Amino acid sequence: MSTTNATIAPGSVGEVVPQRAAFAEPLALKAGRALSGYELVFETYGELNAARSNAVLVCHALSGNHHVAGFHRDNPGKAGWWDNMVGPGKAVDTNRFFVIGLNNLGGCHGSTGPASIDPATGKRYGASFPVVTVEDWVESQARLLDHLGVRRLAAAMGGSLGGMQALQWTLSHPDRIAHAVVIAAAPKLSTQNIAFNDVARQAIVSDPDFHGGDFYSHNTVPARGLKLARMLGHITYLSEDLLGSKFGREIKGEDYGFHYDVEFEIESYLRYQGDKFAQIFDANTYLLMTKALDYFDPARAADGDLARALGAAQAQFFLASFSSDWRFPPERSREVVEALVKAGKSVSYAEIDAPHGHDAFLLDNALYHRTVAAYFDRIAADVGAGARARPLIIGGAELEEMKGYAGTREAEP
Amino acid sequence: MSTTNATIAPGSVGEVVPQRAAFAEPLALKAGRALSGYELVFETYGELNAARSNAVLVCHALSGNHHVAGFHRDNPGKAGWWDNMVGPGKAVDTNRFFVIGLNNLGGCHGSTGPASIDPATGKRYGASFPVVTVEDWVESQARLLDHLGVRRLAAAMGGSLGGMQALQWTLSHPDRIAHAVVIAAAPKLSTQNIAFNDVARQAIVSDPDFHGGDFYSHNTVPARGLKLARMLGHITYLSEDLLGSKFGREIKGEDYGFHYDVEFEIESYLRYQGDKFAQIFDANTYLLMTKALDYFDPARAADGDLARALGAAQAQFFLASFSSDWRFPPERSREVVEALVKAGKSVSYAEIDAPHGHDAFLLDNALYHRTVAAYFDRIAADVGAGARARPLIIGGAELEEMKGYAGTREAEP
Q1: Do B191 and A30 count as a contact with CB atoms less than 8 A apart?
Q2: Is this structure's pTM higher than 0.80?
Q3: B299 touches chain A (CB under 8 A)
Q4: Facing residue for B191 by CB, picked from A32, A194, A248
């Protein structure tokens, strides 16, 4: 956990410094309102090549942020959330690609969001911050690319809600994206997905400390509601089998305690995760992110015909799903794959056997990372990002045998 | 919805009046404490035969009660919760069986529970009401049978937590039960089951109106927490497919509203169910019932060996599960069936194809009800409860073709 260790870890981009960009032009939102201006916090890894053809945008999921890879000087032991995916020699090889991570508009890690000061009032937005959508995020991200001098993305990529953004990129700006890498996502939420989100939102808004979204001025946070939302979320991120093998029915004492305090290990784990999250995450951002999930439904504009909706895309697609993911199970990715095939698009798809549930997209898995690496080799060849200079690094180790890993594309249809 | 209609509905037991029984002898609980005395509210349907051999105990699940069948004079439109299962001519035929339904100890529908007055203090029990277990319930039910002059049950039956009680009966009082009918149950909760229960409990205990369980003296109820618990519960009671086909992604308006008020139909449904439940159910009872679920684990006393644990049983068993139940899926019932087979017990098992999820055990389903009816014919023959005098009634209609319904036992192993 020392700076030295983090610095020398094979495949780490090393120390990174977040950057900021301010956008003065009003952004028209799907909600029918406009944000008069906004700031985005972001990080970049690798170098933009002379042809400006090697940019990869990494979109984050519900609770993610701009810190995708490497570490910050003030917290050298904590790597970015997709550090196992992005770095020199890794699946998304920063020796070849210029990788951009950002905190989405409405977020709570530095970009303009509900906790930011509304210039019109001089007070925090709070409840007045608009509901933003996946489409809105893509527009705000397009402006960030303009700012960085990137006309066309080699790829947009993301898992879960991040994958939805990658997919939306191909529809909002078909001429500005060569490849979409859509992992553990869905073309729209199921009724059950929405139901879980609503329980989470109700937990937050019914917390007396929420104050209708304006808790900032009451010097409090709806910690009880956020904790419940996170506990519930965690259950849906993990597979039932993984929960069983990790926690089982283990209890803290020798025998049942016959009380309502924490007793089973799974209770201890969930409450700890919930408490930790409630201390760092903004409740309004949580509401906003879940609503963006609920609203995402590109087929809606095409009377529910996903293939027709995806017809506008010009990108090539890579999708991956995980066998034990019950939040966005493989069936949901297959819906997208089948619609893309029907629409005559180029699509590769990998269904990864993994026990972890939805969270698998964030975890070490050699087959998964090899498959993504193979697809990024294809992207590199397509956009002129150069060849891989060293063996693939997975989980901190070089895979020497990976010289022939193009042969592992068996998971592609 | 008139009294007349309810009275003449084919297969209805008609108007019923709840009864009460008081038990003065202290009841020693698994928690290591004793209740100095308690009352149980119950209903009976049909007549106890001369041999006292035809009694069937119906055990309720998390939010159930003693009102199993028929209707009360003050609410003639509302039938008991298992009215489609219990009545003259129905699967559990009250022309042949003496059926007993009760509100469990710790409940909130008339039996002694957290909202009752503690005779030692003259105040409501509240937080001081002991945690009770499935084993404790069986003991309290055994005393009710003594009170009713029933030495040995023809059957104990129940769904979900009710099925766990039926199973426990065969272990606690092997000589007092001939058949156990265990529907949509499990031999113990999975880690995920416990996790969902803990989120529900945390929602309740973190509601500022909970007051550590003594909300009665504050003239309030933790309605926010109870609502969240019920919303979450409902999601797990229904299959994802049923939610999808029933509510889809329907919204209240023409287009997205871009607000956090109720918008999707599923939100409206869940919040309505949650609000309704919060008005009628006791929060302490909810905690207690979920904890009884968490603790149930008969194999625990046999070092996890369920077959060995069930070795003490002398009853014959019928189990049923439903294909779309993801709370207690068929795999969980099969665990019990396999352990019973291993222990050399007589067991019949039906796996019913039904789209409704866990709630299927409460719903009309001809194959399900025919299968249960067939098993109760076997019970009737076993205990001398007489032959079925009329065709089976399912969903209010006589099934004439059911004369040969013994042939539908194909679901039994």
Answers
A1: no
A2: yes
A3: no
A4: A248
